Amino acid sequence: MPILTIGETEIPYTLRRSERAKSARITVTPEAVEVVVPTSASDDEIAGVLHRRKEWLVEQTRHMADRVAAAPKVVHFVTGAKIPYRGRLMRLKVEPSDGTLVEVSYRNGFIVHCPRTVPDASRATLIESALRLWLRKRLREDVTSFVRQHGEPNGLKPKRVEIKDQKHLWGSCGPDRVVNLNWHLIFAPRTILEYAVVHELCHLRYRNHHREFWGLVGSILPDWEIRKAWLDENEHFLGLQRV
What we know:
Elements: E1 3-6, E2 9-12, E3 14-18, E4 25-28, E5 33-38, H1 43-52, H2 54-70, E6 73-74, E7 82-85, E8 88-97, E9 103-106, E10 110-115, H3 120-151, E11 160-164, E12 171-173, E13 178-182, H4 190-202, H5 211-220, H6 224-233, E14 241-242
Parallel strand pairs: 3-5, 6-14, 8-10, 11-13
Antiparallel strand pairs: 1-2, 4-5, 7-8, 9-10, 12-13
Helix pairs in contact: 3-4, 4-6
C-alpha cells in the first residue's frame, strides 16, 4: 500500500484506476483513504493531485480519527454498559432467565433477559445481536410513521423503504424510488431521524440539492437547517463500536 508523507504525518492510501473516472477523486473514511484516477493518469499527475490536496488530506484524516475516538464504545455487553439510543446513552441491564431466547425490553434503559443455559463465551455476541435486531425494528417502526406522516400528504410515496447497514451514508434514494436509511440513525434523536426521512423523501421529486429541493424540505420541516447541523456535528454519535 502506498504511503503519502506530509511532514511527520504518514497517510496510507489505496490507488485505483477506473475507466469511468474523468478526473481524480479522493475519498476519506474512518477505515481508509482511496484515490481513484482515470486509467490514463500518469504517476506525475497523481503526485500532483496528492500534493494539491495534502492540507485537506491531513485535516480529513485527523477529523476521521477524532470521530472514531469519540464514537460510543461498548467493552462488554453486561449490566452497566451504555448503549446509544435516540440521542442519549442508556444503561444496559442483563438478567438471567429460564427461557430459551435472548429477549430485549426497554424501561428507562435496556433490559435483556438472557437464558442461564447460554455459555459465557457466547453471551456477549447473542446479547449484541438481540439488541441490534430490537433497535432495527424500532427504527423501522419510526421510519414507517414518518413516511406516513410526511410522505403521503405531500405526494412523496416511495416504492419501498429499506433499513441498511451503510458505512458512509445516512440515507439514499435511487431512481427506482427505493429509499434506503442507515439503521444507525436509531442512535440519533428522533427529530434527526425525521429530518433524514424527509430528506430522502424529497429526493423522490428532486434528484439534486438545488434550491427547489431545499424549498420542499423546508415546507415540511421549517427548522431543517438546525437538524442537519446536528447530524453534521454529531456523526460520531451514530456509531457503536465493540472493543
